[in-house]
Structure formats: structure tokens, C-alpha cells
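Figure 6 in text form: structure in, sequence out.
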């Protein structure tokens, strides 16, 4: 009898972890979704953190980040865009350079873009961009 209750207790604990993680993910997603996106304030620059490039062009996820930076720039909320990110393993172009080339092709003037092409991690993205 004691063995059955121990197994039941273990199964309950095992089932609680995925439930907790799912709950946490839902709360986190709601916080991101409801975060105020437009404060109406002008900023000097928007920073777009690097992600990855495929054959020297931004990956779909990175493209989405860049497109958002371009949108913020075009709506006049920032004066410049800072693209960050170094070269990944096997890449010949840094994330920042690939992002700049993409943004210029979308009509963003090169003089309104700053690149930080050396960072490899988020902490470095921010430190080097500063």
C-alpha cells in the first residue's frame, strides 16, 4: 500500500513540472503581448540584437527583428538604428553587417545606421554598442 502511494506521489510531482512550465510560459507571453510598445517618446537610436545569418543574409527571425527596427525608424521614433552581432562559426559576414545591408536595401540611409560587428552574446551586444 505504501509503495502505491509513493508511486502516485512521484507521478503527481512529475506531472506538476510541465504544468508549472506551461503556466509560466503563458504568463510570460501575456506580459510580452501587453507590454506598451509605443510610449510616444523619441529616442536617439533603436538597437537590434543579432541573431543568425544564412548564407550571409539574415535568418527569418533576424529579419523580423530588423524589420521592426526599420519600422521604428520610419515612424520617426528613433534617429538611428544600431545593428549588433559578430560572425558566427563558418560565416563570412557579421550579423551587424548583414542587417545593415538588408536595411539599406529597404531604403534606410547608410548614415543613419551604426554597426557593432564584434559581439557574440547578448551581454556583449549591449556593452559593445554602448
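Output sequence:
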Amino acid at each position: 500500500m505504501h509503495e502505491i502511494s509513493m508511486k502516485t506521489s512521484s507521478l503527481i510531482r512529475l506531472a506538476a513540472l510541465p504544468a508549472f512550465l506551461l503556466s509560466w510560459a503563458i504568463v510570460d507571453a501575456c506580459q510580452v503581448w501587453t507590454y506598451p510598445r509605443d510610449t510616444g517618446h523619441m529616442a536617439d537610436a533603436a538597437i537590434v540584437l543579432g541573431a543568425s545569418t544564412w548564407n550571409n543574409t539574415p535568418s527569418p527571425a533576424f529579419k523580423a527583428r530588423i524589420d521592426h527596427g526599420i519600422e521604428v525608424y520610419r515612424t520617426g521614433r528613433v534617429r538611428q538604428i544600431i545593428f549588433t552581432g559578430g560572425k558566427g562559426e563558418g560565416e563570412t559576414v557579421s550579423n551587424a553587417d548583414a542587417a545593415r545591408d538588408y536595411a539599406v536595401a529597404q531604403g534606410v540611409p547608410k548614415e543613419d545606421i551604426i554597426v557593432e560587428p564584434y559581439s557574440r552574446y547578448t551581454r556583449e551586444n549591449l556593452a559593445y554598442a554602448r
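Caption detail: The two ends are 64 Å apart (CA to CA).
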